[in-house]
Amino acid sequence: MTAFAGALAGIVLWAPHGKGGLLDGFEGASNWNVLWVGLPLMILGGTAAALAVFFLVRGDWKRALGCVAAIAVLFALGIAVDALAGAPRPECYDPC
Q: Pick from 24, 27, 41: which is nearest to 82 by CA?
């Protein structure tokens, strides 16, 4: 139940960014990497964060530390994917 709640929290935190990437792209183009990369990272990160809190409450420090390490790896992976995507394209407003 804790992992499910964490996954839902990850989806809720991803939703504003995901909506902007899918619907409000440059000249109407969708950025599907937001869905294919960003959503799984947020679901896994939310699950790991919820489990880390769960293990901390139960006093299981080793598993909590493992979950924190998993969060750090997911965070680094997200930063790497974002850096490899390149600089964001400039927005174009009227007159363009």
A: 41
Kindly state the DSSP code that residue 94 receives in the 8-state scheme: S
Please list the pLDDT of the chain residue by residue as tens digits (96 residues): 999 999 999 889 888 777 766 666 555 666 677 778 888 999 999 999 999 999 999 999 999 999 999 999 999 998 888 777 766 666 666 555
Type of residue found at 72: A
Q: 26-41 burial, b for 16+ CB within 10 Å, e for fewer?
A: eeeeebeebeebbbeb
Round to whole Å and give the CA distance between 78 and 14: 13
Name the residue among 5, 93, 94 with its Cα closest to residue 49: 5
